[in-house]
Write a structure and sequence with these properties.
single chain, 214 residues, alpha+beta, 3-stranded antiparallel beta sheet, 8 strands, Peptide_deformylase_sf, iron
């Protein structure tokens, strides 16, 4: 499927995407839309179209499957992202990574700032870079500001894995991929991670692949 026309009005481009029905095509690394800061959302879609677009992002995220999806990942350069994480992982992993369930929520015009200086490093992947993972050191705790799809203000502190998710998705809206922040010596296929580095924390990977953790 061809990407929406780059210079068409955003509402028209979203309508074109939604017309096909089902999960939306996910844009892979190499497309300029993933490398440009997205436009602030200022009502470009209108309430009804925004609701349809948000639902399409949710369906696409579930189908991928993933725990977050930003509008640029489906070719739409707007500062909108969705997250949801049922956290279906063993308790040992959940504890090590601070991974707790997150309900579905919409982030509109989100920005984050670190809370404190602690950082945590874990393998991370991206729906726009399929088949690969790498270790990324991120802020362990962040304050996220923005709004939801109803325009209600968001000002919340996220810790652990939820903090990682909101950083990853907000980075997408700034034209940043996780690889820009990754320890590239850790870059591994999904199969290698599963076979060799599936421990709750990446200490063995750091030793085996020769990189340092924070």
């Amino acid at each position: 499927m061809a990407p929406p026309r780059d210079h068409a009005p955003l509402a028209e481009r979203v309508e074109e995407l939604l017309a096909a029905g089902g999960p939306l095509p996910i844009v892979a690394a190499g497309r300029p839309v993933l490398r440009r800061p997205a436009e602030p959302y200022e009502g470009q879609l209108g309430p009804a179209l925004l609701a349809r677009f948000v639902e399409a992002l949710r369906v696409t995220m579930h189908a991928a499957p993933g725990v977050g999806l930003a509008a640029p990942q489906v070719g739409i350069p707007l500062r909108i992202a969705v997250i949801e994480d049922p956290a279906p992982v063993p308790e040992e992993v959940a504890v090590a990574r601070g991974r707790v369930p997150q309900p579905f929520r919409v982030l509109v015009n989100p920005v984050y700032e670190p809370v404190g200086t602690a950082r945590a490093a874990f393998f991370e992947g991206c729906l726009s870079v399929p088949g690969w993972q790498a270790v990324v050191a991120r802020h362990a705790e962040v304050r996220l500001r923005g709004a939801d799809e109803q325009g209600r203000a968001l000002d919340e502190v996220f810790r652990g894995w939820p903090a990682r998710i909101v950083q990853h998705e907000t980075d997408h809206l700034d034209g940043t991929l996780y690889l820009d922040r990754a320890e590239l010596r850790s870059l591994s296929t999904n199969e290698a991670v599963a076979a060799l580095w599936a421990q709750p924390a990446p200490r063995a990977a750091a030793e085996g692949l020769g990189f340092e953790l924070p």
